[in-house]
Amino acid sequence: MGQKFQYDESGGTFFYFLLSFLALILIPVTILYWPRKKKIDPDEEKKQCHCPPCIIKREHLKNGESWQSTKQLCLKVGIIFSWAILIFLAYKVSQFDYEMANFDPYEILGISPGASQTEIRKSYRRLSLILHPDKDTGNEKAFMKLTKAYQALTDEEARRNWEKYGNPDGPGAMSFGIALPSWIVEKENSVWVLGLYALVFMVALPIVVGNWWSRSIKFTADQVLLDTTHMYYYYFHKTPHMVLKRVVMILAASFDFDRKHNKEIKERQSDNQEVPQLIKKLPNLNEKNKQRPFCYEYSVKARAIIHAHLSRIPLNPNTLEQDRRYILAKCPYLIQEQVNCVNQLILLSYARRIERILPIETIENCMKLSPMIVQALWEYKSPLLQLPHINDDNLKYFMSKKRQIKTLQQYAQLKGEDRRAILRSLSDDEYEDVMKVLGKMPFVDFQITVEVMDDENPTEVTASAIVTVTVNLIRKDMSTVFGDESVKEYDKIDENGINETKENEAGDGENEPASVKRPAWLKQKRGGGKKTKKSGRPANKSAFSNSIKNKVEDSPSVSRERLVKLKEDKRTKVEEESAEESADESEPDSNDKEDKSSEDESVTQRSNPEDDDQEWEKFRKLHEREKSLEGKSKSSHPVHCPYFPKDKQEYWWTYICDRKSRTLLTAPYFVTSLVDKETVNLKFTAPIWKGVYNFTVCLRSDSYIGFDQQKDFKLDVKEAPAEITEHPQWEFDDSEENVVEKDDQESEYTTDDDVPED
Asked: Where would you find the membrane-spanning parts of this chain (predicted)?
């Protein structure tokens, strides 16, 4: 049997190809991208704030979504048109299958299967006069098919071939069709086909890939220009101690606001008149700074707009107000990039890659700027101005001889009649808006637990151990404390909005010294320490060894493997001890029979239920650590921010620092999914010297002013054991020893004693 390759003459197989290709694309696209109506809450209008800024913001957002409705309409039309094409292709394929059905001579001649030879000849003559190519109604293909049908019923050999092979001509060559129509390879169409190939593969595809590559090398994951990131690194390294207004200046100088780097920025002729007039209204703008890029026009304009926003100065709605919306919508991503840059510089300073050490105030000033931008308030303004209908004139009612209300938490904890009496100047509708917004603000229960995970004694901290601080966040609405006179200890908040509750997790200590010292991981102890059994290394390793140890410990997969390994080792050890005891009991003397019952009782007593609880607690923590590795959503609770141009969700930063030495111990963890509860594990390396150390866990909001909290804890560091055999992967050769100056032998943490014990 021969083989034959040919193009699709009728185009049927090409329809199969198009149908399959279009179905594979159209079905998932329809499921994912078909526009769906949002579920509208019938009480949503009642829950919204009706202050003038909120109404204006909703109107702008609604107008901005007008193009979204047009986009959804075009998407619907495109999907429906594609489904129409798919249905047409399915119809063509069904017709093709019908035409290519099995050869049936009786059906072609229009006679019954039991017809005689006379009836067959009559039907053939009648149809041949109609279908013959010489006739006006002739059809060559139909006539050839009619002839084969007549031969199959009259010629014996043709009949046998039809019955055996389904074809009067006998077995044919195997045909492999190419699912492309034959006109593609025809000579007269070759120019058009080659032109289409060149347009797609030599023009369109390189342009698309080039645009994608050019954007990917210019922007970070948060769509921040890499040139902006480099500028942040330069200025934060140049000025380690960065004040807040300097941070605002660097933010305004971002290249994302420059027309040369970002084509979305609009430059108008009216800026030459409006920007100078706006600058006159803003004190301390420092517009005459000659340092580049702070002196560039785009930087001065962006800085003036940010200052006007923080001062709540209205702008021209047709010009500068549009620029304000674009700049402010970009600011949260730029501020997060600033925090990341400062954190990287701090890590480099700890690794001695750079000489200057950035204090904790720099990164905290970057964090302070985020709620200022969201709420349109300077840091020195009252947090009460975040409520609707509250202005500087209303603040005097919060300050009286009886009470001094300075924070939102203090106002919320008043009784209902007292809250209404303070805002008696507002109407009932305005006061209702105030209570709506205040009741939805966050009230976070902020608790910490300090332990050394994966160790047999998690409460004991030894030198250079990996300390894990578990931060438990429980978010509630502020309405839960309305009228509650009995405030819990963790609810006590000072006038600055900072939770001052202190938890001493590792013992008591004396007052800290006033001197500020460098963090302990930057230096190492000089020789003479205790050595391990395996390699003879000192118990207190070098700074490089400790940094590697920290990195390995921070790896969740390594920690999980170590935990499983420690559990297996412990279980094996218990089984061996039980086997030894059973072996001893298997051969008792006659005099020891009475002691057997007492030994059984001791073994029974040894299996304390508290051990099971500890194992369960370890398993629960392991499960939480695995869960923390999963992807986090960025949806928590909406923020009341009428002056911010976009909808905002509540996010938080949490980190550990040393207030005395003004250093950062852990990288700020950005919590983006605090809906009800959230657990964060912060890890750092314990000091290499034994003693009592004071650290602080901080929680900062990126959306509200006055909601920051901090908790102090003490760490009682014990001397490391003489033999360290649990971490063989941290053993290093003694080929190279770092030489440390004599002054570096002192501890760099701030402890309760000026000089740690040897």
From this structure: 14-34, 73-91, 191-213
Q: Give the other-Cβ count within 10 Å of 114's Cβ.
A: 7
- Assess whether pLDDT exceeds 80 at residue 538: no
pLDDT at 651 (0 to 100): 94
Say if residue 142 is in the same domain as residue 271: no
Contact (CB, 8 A) for 519 and 746: no
Sign of torsion, CA 285 288 290 294? positive
The residue that leads in pLDDT, 377 or 74, is: 377
Q: Domain range holding 663?
A: 446-577+618-745
The string of DSSP letters for 397-431 reads GGB-SS-B--SHHHHHTS-HHHHHHHTTTS-HHHH
How many Cβ atoms sit within 10 Å of the Cβ of residue 510?
9
Single out the residue in 336, 364, 381 at which a domain terminates.
Answer: 381
The model's pTM is 0.67
539 and 624 inside one domain: yes
Tell me whether residue 701 is in a domain.
yes
Query: Count of domains in the chain?
Result: 4
pLDDT single digits (tens) 88-140 = 888 877 766 555 455 677 778 788 877 788 888 888 888 888 888 877 777 78
Phi-psi region for residue 497, left (φ > 0), alpha (ψ -120 to 50) or beta?
Answer: left
Q: Taking the CA atoms of the chain, what radius of gyration do you get in angstroms? A: 39
Mean pLDDT (the chain) is: 75
At a CB cut-off of 8 Å and minimum separation 6, what does 19 contact?
86, 89, 90, 93
Please say if the pLDDT value at position 497 is more than 90. Answer: no
Displacement of CA 432 from its chain's centroid (Å):
36
In residues, how long is the chain? Answer: 758
Same domain, 684 and 725: yes
Looking at the structure, do residues 453 and 377 belong to the same domain, yes or no?
A: no
Which CATH number belongs to the domain containing residue 519 in this structure? 2.60.40.150
Give the separation between CA 61 and CA 722, rounded to whole angstroms.
Answer: 65
Q: Which two tokens stand for residue 343?
A: 């954190």
Q: Buried b / exposed e across 309-347, counting CB within 10 Å, b at 16+?
A: bbeeeebeeebbebbbbbbbebbbbbbbbbbbbbbbbbe
